[in-house]
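Troubleshooting log. The previous run stalled partway through. Resubmitting the same two chains, unchanged.
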Amino acid sequence: MSAAASAHRPGDERAALVTGGAGFIGSHLVDRLLRDGWHVRVLDDFSSGREANLAAAGEAVEVVRGDVCDAPLLERCARGVDVVFHQAAVASVPRSVAEPLRTHAVNATATLLVLEAARRARVRRVVFAASSAAYGNDPALPKVETMPPSPLSPYALQKWVGESYCGLYAALYGVETVALRYFNVFGPRQDPESEYAAVIPRFVTACLAGEAPIVYGDGEQTRDFTYVADAVEANVLAADAPEAAGTVVNVAGGRRVSLNEILALVAELTAARVRPRYEAARPGDVRDSVADLGRALAVLGFEPAVDLREGLRRTIESFRSAAAGRARP
Amino acid sequence: MSAAVRRAALVTGGAGFVGSHLVDRLVRDGWRVRVLDDFSSGREANLEASGAAIELVRGDLRDAAALGRAVAEVEVVFHQAAVPSVPRSVAEPVRTHEVNATGTLLVLEAARRAGVRRLVYAASSSAYGDTPELPKVETMPPRPRSPYALQKWTGECYCRLYSDLFGLETVALRYFNVFGPRQDPKSEYAAVVPRFATACLRGEAAVVYGDGEQTRDFTFVDDAVRANVLAADAPGASGAVVNVAGGRRVSLNELLAGLQELTGTRVPSRHEAPRAGDVRDSLADLSRARALLGYEPAASLREGLLRTVESLRKEQGR
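Second attempt completed without errors. Output:
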């Protein structure tokens, strides 16, 4: 880290730290930043991030293996950096119910530690991966950033605490922060296997394997699905948008889809003939969700570019080739 | 009640200001009382009255072994331990997060594992932030303006989640500016009542941050203690957040004038810049406290201030 520890000079390539950069969204962001000419450092403990996610980035990325809860390490990683993209998290509602302490440390406390490290290292801006879970079960739709938070799970609370610290670090300490409230991001590299896997990779994997996908609840609950390239675009915009410091901004696909509709679409695109298995709804899950994107457009100039069908097609493609890769001798 | 069926309570931060008054009250009411305190701000002297009657566990909330010992076979946990200071949270956001937010989660988790029936949590009116609407009602959206406010609100949300998701009964009491004997007047982050009272007793200038026209709802410590005792048993209170206050709004300038009258002194006030994270006005709506807990503030401001001044006099005389 000796070279990276030196201060960034005007004219140099810009330097970014991506925490959780070997994870699902983080690694797509890394690829994009490298393409855009940034110097990119990744901090990841590979607890859920994977080496394979950084295959495309290869030698171009500086990888620091370590825990995002390690304050001295964070401070070293933040040195010489322009923008921190804080993506590291345990991104799961049910896992936060099962492990409230561990997820508090990673989702809430580590965000504070990242902000503190950024403040000490005089990082210009921190872009935080916040969550639409903060909105909870308030029936009002679409979700606007000015609505009061109503966290229904430890995960939702922890993410809300992280974005609140972002707001405080902007107001009290002058660190420019932008909190992006992700709405159900999906795409290639999203883990389908974990016990706490998100719904699209679970559906895709089941359909590709010809197995019954599991639906928690009646499947009529709705979500606003965001293709990962759109979430990445929002991050890149948030790194530089003037007037964005201290704000919270929705990032979403901007359309409301039920899980049953998603399942039908995935089944169609994979030409699968499967029947879902309905199980009990999970505690802490919200019923309906769709984002208002007015602020995202006004503050970031963000508009989703990839429609749901195209996003699903690319996701299925990548899961297919990953499966084929594994099947090869 | 025979010794065998005495109810058991844990008071975290039981050597602190509010905690030690609560300990005294619980001991008087016949509870078996255990105190968990690391004496970072709590003081041995605060436990003089109850000393022999209580069981003391010296340790930090973050020490899993000490916490595990502390919650064992306890019916009610009163979680009072905190670093209760807005300016200190601005100066030390990470350290105060560990105690105020993470510490509360650790206590909830330990209580859940130990089969504790109910946890009563010392939440804070700072959660309301600086929205102009008065009085503050529990249904208002939170607007934390300081790390302290955020951390205390986080603890409150975890209380609600532990009630909803894990069946641990929790009640969060949003304290409004509690004051009274044993409140530390010396710390760099001392609260306004002990600072003003000490200045009056010494005939020194009272430092006022801002113009002094900001208002607070001051709660005498005996009232805060009574709210805790009521919250331990109130039916239908689990998962609730409840304001605890004196129910009247007083400006800092009025407070200083009252203290000057009670101490028979006239001291100049020295105005300094408002502090980051402080709110402008505050006043509690007590409807929910009445309905849910049967709580009513009993001490008048004058009476509370008088008892505070008396105890500070005694301390100074030592």
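Takeaways: The CA atoms of residues 6 and 239 of chain B lie 26 Å apart. The first strand of chain B starts at residue 8 and ends at 12.
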